Amino acid sequence: MVRYAVVGAGGFAATHIERIRTRGGELGCELAAVAVRPPDRLPGQVEAFADAGVEVFPDAEEMFDALAGRIDAVFVPTGIHTHAPLARAALARGHHVYLEKPPAGTIQEVDAMLAASADAGRMIAVGFQMIFSESINLIKRRVVEGRLGTVRRLRTWAFWPRHDAYYARNEWAGRMKVGDAWVLDGPSHNALGHQVANLLYLAGPRPRAFADPVAVCAELYHAREITGEDTSSLRIRTAEGAEAVFVASHCTEGAHTGPWIEMDCDGGRVRWAAGGKTRIEYADGAAESLDADGVECREAALANFTEAVRAGEPGRLMCDLAMGRRFTLAVNGVWESSAGSRAIDPRYTRRAGAGPEARTVIEGVNEAITRCAAEGKLFSEVGCPWARPAEPFDLTGYSSFPRRVEG
Known about the structure:
Layout: E1 2-7, H1 12-27, E2 29-35, H2 45-51, E3 55-57, H3 60-66, E4 73-76, H4 83-92, E5 96-99, H5 107-120, E6 124-126, H6 134-145, E7 151-159, H7 164-167, E8 177-178, E9 181-182, H8 187-191, H9 193-203, E10 213-222, E11 231-238, E12 243-249, E13 257-265, E14 268-273, E15 278-282, E16 287-290, H10 297-311, H11 321-338, E17 342-343, E18 349-352, E19 359-362, H12 365-375, E20 393-394
Parallel strand pairs: 1-2, 1-4, 2-3, 4-5, 5-6, 7-12, 10-17
Antiparallel strand pairs: 7-13, 8-9, 10-11, 10-20, 11-12, 13-14, 14-15, 15-16, 18-19
């Protein structure tokens, strides 16, 4: 059995724990331990874990020390600013690591984890689980096979409102920094970071690889009183020749809707919608469709990680930290291009709802997102009155955040 430990027991940690428990017998893995700080423990929680044969520790690093040589890997589904120090501590004790997305706040933290992984001879998987979806992988195969030809343009967009409760759930939600640690929280880095990762994944013509971002032009905004971003439009240019546009906001009207992806390629066009509904139309007149995904992505991610750990073969990972590095490089470029997150004049916003479900809405942002996606433009380029143009940022040789962002 492959033996796992998980840092935390709530939020995403709880979903990992549940999947290991329910799928462990089939996959050949088991939950050996969890780290839960005493102030965070729920009544009866320690006893319930003990009854299941799961050790409980008050501190992550204490757990890493105690379990050195007794477990195979550690899951790190914690705050963005804690990913790098916890991953490096786990690696130093000889544990493989499953790192929840996004990998880290800065490119230098990712590079430090890559170095620690190489020194320890241990692997790091990154939880961009959408990469495991049947529909995304159908599109990726057609790109790799050359059936779609060179990818030229990609666009993804979503209406993704977040209520006050979302921002009150922890110390780092909506934050640019916590203390001296960079978080860069917002739709492009966190809540919809999967979609930025999908753009880079689909733009790359090689299997198990993201496209290489070389320049970014981005506009980040906040309508709420936060230091992170809640509204973003960005354009990434890749070394492979593709241009990728992402547009989304946590301050939209109505319910969560999307995300969608559209791709224009030399050999055809792709339309994808959340849930897996996919349509590929080839330049020669042929077409293929998929109505829905037949894969539960997080279960597939657990199965893939378990297989790679059991075999001791990092090359089996569908998404490793080397791939995640290109995502972090792009996001750091996004923040540099925008020079941080800009406040939207309250004249263009309003409050809706009450209590924990209250939210902030930017007037007309749904229409602006739709137009940006259709035209491949940023908010300032479609005339949003609260938007300001950003400076393109060249990522050539970039290795340390920040340059233009003031912390």
